[in-house]
Design goal:
- It is a single chain.
- By secondary structure, the chain is mainly alpha-helical.
- It has a single domain, classed as Skp domain (Protein Binding, DinI Protein, Chain A, 2-Layer Sandwich).
- A three-stranded mixed beta sheet has the order 1-2-3, with no helix packed on it.
- A hairpin with a 2-residue loop joins strand 1 and strand 2.
- The longest helix is centred in the middle third of the chain and has 54 residues.
- The protein is rod-shaped and about 90 Å long.
């Protein structure tokens, strides 16, 4: 057991970022999010291609079009461009929100597992962020990752 005694206290360290990033829960959620991102990116690319086609049409057919047709096409291009910008902004906000939700959810799971391991192994203090140095023998990150794998496999 990677623990160190400090007097009567048992101390361990955990790297929460490594634990989250190496957990199967994170990998599964990341893969699902990536699939969703790719689908939305395809949609945005399709909208961009439609705008480009309308711009090409305006350049090609503009000299043959009436002033009202040109105005209508320009308005359509501007409107689609605004909607595309809005959709991109919304996509970026959604992506950031989903990433934060994922990290928060996994952070809670990591916290629960760390507390379980601390109780099971009579650990008095577990330190995570802000470490300058820790001896690898007191790092319980691998134990936390293994427990998260067990939890993931039970689902």
């Amino acid at each position: 057991m990677p623990l160190a005694g400090a007097g009567d206290y048992r101390i361990a360290v955990v790297d929460p970022n490594r634990v989250v990033e190496q957990s199967p829960q994170y990998e599964a959620a990341r893969d699902a999010l990536q699939a969703e991102i790719e689908e939305r990116e395809r949609s945005l690319r399709g909208q961009q291609e439609q705008i480009a086609a309308l711009q090409r049409q305006l350049e090609k057919d503009g000299p043959l079009m009436s002033e009202s047709e040109i105005q209508r096409l320009q308005n359509d291009i501007r409107s689609r461009t605004r909607r595309l910008k809005y959709a991109r902004d919304e996509f970026q906000e959604d992506f950031a929100l989903r990433q934060n939700e994922l990290r928060t959810k996994l952070g809670r799971q990591v916290q629960e597992v760390v507390v379980e391991l601390a109780k099971e192994n009579d650990i008095d203090l577990i330190i995570s962020d802000g470490l300058v140095y820790s001896n690898p023998r007191i790092d319980i990150s691998d134990l936390v990752i293994e427990r998260l794998k067990e939890v993931f496999e039970k689902k």
